[in-house]
Design brief:
InterPro entries: DUF2867, NAD(P)-bd_dom, NAD(P)-bd_dom_sf, NAD(P)-dependent_oxidoreduct. By secondary structure, the protein is α/β, with parallel strands linked by helices. The strands form five sheets. Strands 3-2-1-4-5-6-11 form a seven-stranded parallel sheet, sandwiched between helices. The protein has a seven-stranded antiparallel sheet with strand order 15-16-17-18-19-14-20.
Length: 485
């Protein structure tokens, strides 16, 4: 079957895509910028990529007419500008208008559980999108999930941050709210299982695991699974703003996403009973088992996707490709080169940089810079990296975004997503003569940008000199440095 997959750079779609290919389907992937999607990662002739922005109606002409089924996995909850409800409404309308003119027989939409009388802005938007997607031209199957538990999922990582960082928690009242978590493995099984299933046409189903828990119970059971003793005290008064900042500073989420999550966590998300799991012969996994499976993936370094990679900066609204080419005019540069005795070992070090590995030299200063960035509303160093050894174009890496990760070309290019009075790139490249060149490029904005460069220049000299020495595994006396303005 020929399938259109939207939201391809998102957490769910990156889990779903390999399963669709393994099941013999041909998949057309919709991305806003093809440079952000690494086709080599999947190594399959049954995947094609088209550039589509569902906010721009003209771009939808690239969707083939012979599509038989489409997944709608688009949401805008983490956007930092504009009204995400309006954005989701526009995307849904444009998607429907175009899909109705194709051969699509079924659209599968992953939404949120919305059974409470009072819904959050996020859940109200999801419910409205379901209404907008309904059509007489194709069958709509809607799956509604609450908390999704899996390695790299937003819910899992936020709970993990809270439990592992805070022995004692003073938490808001929403920790008493009930929810019905579901393992990511089961979510994918449902998304695959309803394909071309006539019984599910024009129907919606709540999907959840067998456990109904409060958020407090989820935190304590997570702690128990990790062998940690945790105490949680609930205070009667904690404003949504304070709760949002609490999540923002303790976990790796952005403030805008934290704010929307807090509003959603006030709403009970418990499934209405249905027979979909038995119809599809799906064995629902309990919360404890879902945690165990998630950590199995983490320990094996096999995290397929992370919500942090999908959470892109507003900087990229104008397109990912714009930042792939490093500018030369009007820039400050710090360029350092070293001959390598073992280029493969150095390349391995470059591919492991950041996250748990750190930055090889002055890591404490990198963390300090990340903390300062977080205070000013930036991403900070909290995102880490999805894998300790693998890295792909589009991945988040601490406060950087991976623009190019080409191991064959022996080149890694990073773009800074931190708060800056300008734009910054960091590049590592090993040439055919086994010379490692490390280049930091900064394009300042106005006088403040120039003052910023000169203010941090002494620290750059210290950090960048030490970093290239560690990457090259040589003694400082061999360094061939050159700093340019």
């Amino acid at each position: 079957m020929k399938i259109l997959l939207t939201g391809v750079t998102g957490y769910i779609a990156q889990r779903l895509l390999p399963e669709l290919i393994e099941n013999g389907h041909t998949v057309v992937c919709c991305v806003r910028d093809s440079n952000r999607f690494n086709l080599k990662k999947y190594d399959s002739p049954n995947i094609s990529v088209i550039e589509v922005d569902f906010l721009k109606e003209d771009s939808l002409q690239f969707i083939p007419n012979d599509i038989e089924l489409a997944y709608y996995l688009i949401h805008s909850m983490s956007t930092q500008s504009g009204n995400f409800g309006d954005l989701e409404e526009t995307c849904a309308k444009n998607f429907k208008d175009r899909i109705e003119r194709t051969n699509v027989r079924q659209v599968i939409y992953l939404s949120g559980i919305s059974n409470s009388e009072e819904l959050s802005k996020h859940l109200s938007s999801r419910k409205k999108v379901e209404t907008l997607l309904s059509s007489e031209k194709y069958a709509l199957t809607t799956l509604k999930a609450g908390i999704i538990v899996g390695s790299g999922s937003a819910s899992f990582e936020i709970i993990r941050d809270l439990v592992e960082k805070l022995p004692i928690m003073v938490a808001p009242r929403w920790l008493k709210t009930k929810c019905q978590p579901i393992a990511i493995r089961n979510v994918i099984e449902f998304l695959i299982g309803v394909i071309d299933k006539n019984e599910t046409f024009n129907k919606d189903y709540d999907i959840g695991g067998p456990d109904i828990l409060t958020y407090k119970e989820m935190l304590l059971r997570f702690a128990k699974a990790r062998g940690l003793k945790r105490r949680i005290g609930i205070v009667p008064v904690m404003s949504p703003t304070i709760s949002s900042y609490w999540l923002y500073f303790i976990t790796s989420t952005s403030y805008s996403l934290a704010k929307n999550l807090v509003n959603s966590m006030k709403v009970e998300v418990v499934c209405e009973p249905n027979d979909l799991a038995s119809m599809l012969n799906i064995n629902l996994l309990g919360y404890d088992r879902a945690i165990q499976l998630a950590f199995d993936k983490i320990e094996q370094n096999q995290v397929t996707s992370s919500w942090k990679d999908a959470q892109t900066s507003e900087l990229f609204k104008s397109g990912f490709s714009k930042f792939v080419e490093v500018p030369t005019n009007g820039c400050f540069k710090d360029t350092r080169s070293l001959p390598l005795e073992d280029s493969l070992a150095s390349l391995d070090k470059i591919w492991k940089i950041g996250g748990k590995t750190g930055w090889y030299y002055g890591t404490a200063l990198w963390k300090l810079r990340g903390f300062i960035d977080q205070i000013f509303g930036g991403v900070g160093m909290r995102r880490g990296r999805r894998s300790d050894t693998e890295i792909f174009t589009g991945d988040a890496l601490d406060f950087w975004r991976v623009m190019i990760a080409d191991r064959e070309e022996r080149r890694l290019l990073l773009y800074a997503e931190m708060k800056l009075p300008g734009e910054a790139w960091l590049e590592f490249k090993i040439d055919k003569d086994n010379i490692l060149t490390q280049t930091a490029t900064f394009r300042p904005i106005g006088l403040y940008g120039r003052l910023y460069w000169y203010a941090v220049l002494p620290f750059h000299g210290f950090i960048f000199r030490g970093m290239i020495n560690k990457l090259a595994a040589t003694v400082p006396g061999h360094v061939e440095n050159k700093a340019q303005n």
